[in-house]
Amino acid sequence: MLCQILSQICILTGGVCDACRSQENKNVDIDWGSRKAEFLELIKKYLEYSGFSSDEFWQIVDSFTNKDIFKCDENGKFLHDIDGSLIRKDDTILK
Predict the structure, then answer these.
(1) Nearest of 66, 64, 71 to residue 86 by alpha carbon
(2) Full-model pTM
(3) Which residue in 6, 37, 60, 88 is a FRET match for 82, CA 20 to 30 A apart?
């Protein structure tokens, strides 16, 4: 991973900058299940506040989601995996 040029870069043991090390540790240090639960709770509160139904909310979210990155069915609706996450197209490269 390349580091962006910053006004101050801290090089850690092994010659890796702190930003790169943080990125490497992201998937280890973050409890993604807990983060998802927090996110869904925030959505629930927002739906109560806004009066939107869950379907209306996700329809709005989907309208801003890039169909070039995520798989869709023959009707153009996004495909989701077993836990409800969007399924990234196989040829999509994350940078």
Answers:
(1) 71
(2) 0.56
(3) 60
